[in-house]
Design goal:
The protein is mostly beta strands and 122 residues long. The protein has strands at residues 3-6, 9-12, 17-23, 32-38, 45-50, 56-58, 66-71, 76-81, 90-97, 111-112, 116-121. It is globular.
Length: 122
Amino acid sequence: VQLVESGGGLVQAGGSRNLSCLASGSLFSFAGLGWFRQAPGKERELVAAISAGGHTYYLDSLKDRFAISRDNAENTVYLQMSSLKPEDTAMYYCAYKPGLGLASLPHLYTVWGQGTQVTVSS
């Protein structure tokens, strides 16, 4: 499996941005997926996760502004971000976890994309 993120860029505070992550491989439909982010000097944190069956989990502080979804026919997972704040500035990574469930711990994800930078200006 390989993951390629896209959609990052510069956005003004209050704006929206949609990220996409295209996966190669035939096991996409049977895997959990996650979006993580890492800001300079900070640890990588889970933003949102989605199970093979579509169950979702969010960092509590983001659940009202971010939405994760997946399209198994397109082998793609999405992250819709709205009402963006400067503190959302980070490198955003998608990640693949073998097995049907979702998970919040980075070490359970075995494949990572290269990341896409999101910068929110004030």
